[in-house]
Protein 1
Amino acid sequence: MPFPSQRPRRLRRTSGLRRMVRETLVSPADLIDPLFVVEGSGIHEEISSMPGVFRASIDRLGREVDAVLQAGIPAVILFGVPESKDGVGSGAYAEDGIVQQAVRWIKQRAPELTVITDLCLCEYTDHGHCGVIAGDTVDNDATLELLARTALSQAAAGADMIAPSDMMDGRIGRVREALDEGGFSDRAIMSYAVKYASAFYGPFRDAAESAPAFGDRRAYQMDPANRREALKEAALDIEEGADIVMVKPALPYLDVLREVRDYFGDLPIAAYQVSGEYAMIQAAARNGWVDGTRVMVESLTAIKRAGADLILTYFARQFAALAPEQRGA
Ligand code: PBG
């Protein structure tokens, strides 16, 4: 029955009514906090293009981990920044590699914190690509073996969940097989299944020193123009054994996120609000051009509304620190 009997404004009249009919609420329990761990000691430096986000050496990691625990955030995802790199990214699978050391350290200090390890070679290769190079391309199948080895070493260090972000074909199956054979059939895989070749990763590549030295990642990451391909990538990774699939970036790809959510009803979907998304909001807020807190809440709410069960975001702690009513609760 239309106007005048239907008046949707009735349920928007007071904040109490709006709270009662609010459909989507982001909770700190939905969030995963990315941490950058650098080799060396005494390092705790802010990333210039990502204000509020730090790179820390293990001896200075305590502050970061305590803040995550205090905020009630259940999980971190670790990115390693090694001192030296080589052609095959051997720092990624070294037993005393930076991520392996960090996992052991965190698990000792905070066993209840879920530790996810990003699995990729780009932070460890001197050419900055996500796999080993053959001619002018990344050799898919040779890379799989190094990824399997890296995943095993991360699991052995105590990682609860492995998150392959390299976009090689067949990596989920190969990593699952390696984990199972190595006695880690209990460790989960969160696949960066739908990962676009995006310009929004710029600040991350500064932070992780992982920009490719030549070319770009378009021969393995997805074309931003493609939607059907997202369903194909997610389907393959689920078939190969992924426990959670991710869409990345988040805000520019909410249509894709919604579709993946609707299509794959039976497993959790994650979305990554990436470094460029974070940097843009922070830059505008610092200029006084937008209300940073409100844009943060609105963007995270939109990502959840579009279908994300889990959100990887550099805002995790800032969001969790808000009063419940600022988050709409
Ligand atoms: C590693 C990796 C990247 C990100 C997460 N894992 C960079 C890339 O693919 O170039 C991006 C995260 C961000 O921008 O916040 N492959």
Protein 2
Amino acid sequence: MYTHESLGSQFNIGHLCTRAQCDAGRGDKVALRWVPTALQRIDYTFTDLDLHSNRFANVLTGLGFQPGEIFFTFLPKATEQFFAFLGALKAQVVCGTLFANFGDEALLDRLGDSRARGVITKKQFLKKILRIRDRLPELEYIILVDSDEHQGNGILSYSLLMAGASDSFEVPPTGPETPSVLHYTSGSTGKPKGVLHCHRSIISQSYTTAHVLDLKEDDLLWCTADQGWVTGTSYGIIGPWSLGVAQLHYGGGYDAGEWFSLLEREGVTVWYSAPTALRMLMRESDDLYAKFDLSRLRHIYSVGEPLNPEVIHWSRRLLRHEIYDTWFQTETGAIMICNRPGVEVRPGSMGTPIPGIQPAILGDDGAPLPDGEQGNLCIRSGWPSMFATYLNNESAYQSKFRDGWYYTGDTARRDGDGHYWFMGRSDDVINTAGHLISPFEVESALLEIPEIVESGVIGAPDELLYEKVVAFIALRQGVEYSTALELKIRLYISNKVSSIATPQEIRVMERIPKNKSGKIMRRVLKATYLGTELGDVSTMEDL
Ligand code: AMP
């Protein structure tokens, strides 16, 4: 286990996940089992990870990247994702990860705000970046994993660069506060914020991987999260490799039969997924599961959205496994509250805090609330994987802390035995299939459509996705709503923001309710949608 004392002067995540594992005698051990499609399998050892990431570290330093500068991955599941991420960290370059579905505007916000100097991607995504490149003056390099030639204008071939780079790299001593990973997260107002982590996060990530995910030397973990999100880096890269444990990564999408055959065929022992995926599996016929032998599977975990008790009961009945819910956020960097083996699971509760983590349920005035009452879920500040700041937005960072408590933005309650129950968000952020969507981002993109003059976006309850994106729009005078317009809106949001932000439902209104200072009253929109009481509307602008 890593501690400040045991790490001394070397906290470098890239080093600890690769070279340090080879030094501990795991050089020939499989680190990454890459299954690009159902018919292929390629194993990479810890030595392979070390050499590939060394080469990438040399590529970045050769291009003049300095410690602290920012580089992004913008890839679907691909091995280069892992080599680039670890290589960047070895060179003390901050590595941001972008979800491959992001559209132009989402990319522009993130690459622009961070002043990123480079990005690694695939040819199929190049056009998205080229469409916004003139607004990204700092973006010097675009590295293509599937191009055999450099194309000029800073567009470079990954294979050529890697072939010309040495596979040995001296990782500089890296202190705990050295910046490491950057993930953008959505708020309910303003642009997405860059959550900056530093190398000390590995302490919490390795601890929770060992003590929550319960990974042992011979385990094979399958964490289904995309590397564009925090679970995909904390537990799809850092946690398991920091302990020298093998991981499976699969290049295909959701397919119930294929997923179960992967679990069986590859002998996955620990599986970390999300409620939406589990609910999708639950919809399949019971017979499907009878065909598979999952005797190697030891544990199933879930993260990202509330895990409803029905899924837990389904898994107990059919898979003969508990599903352990885990709670954390981009800002916390690692699991804070969870269910885990050896601790009683109360279906519907997200569990108890891990040792060393002190949560509290506080009222808006900062006073602790009695057990059973809903309030702000807060964490005592100072845990090892606590984010270092919001990039270029220290005041937003400071506003998340009060009297030594970090306010998570979630509401919860604690029962008399110390189990925490998620209640919702204290802001308007939408959680659809475990992805946080900013209503503001979607509202702004909607307003770019000429037919739309006003917009308001909310999350509404959904059986499968937990929440769905619902857009309210007011149309320009003379414009008629039509199927063609609806299609246009959906496509526009998908291309500009991302496919997951595309409204599932669009409703037309005369005018969008706003308060007297012009702020969209999403609370009123939500009540309208649900057909519930509108509540206090005294601040509402006259319609
Ligand atoms: P992100 O920062 O994108 O990882 O999203 C974090 C947010 O997802 C949390 O603040 C919660 O609102 C939600 N979330 C994560 N895990 C859980 C969970 N186990 N139960 C309920 N909500 C969760």
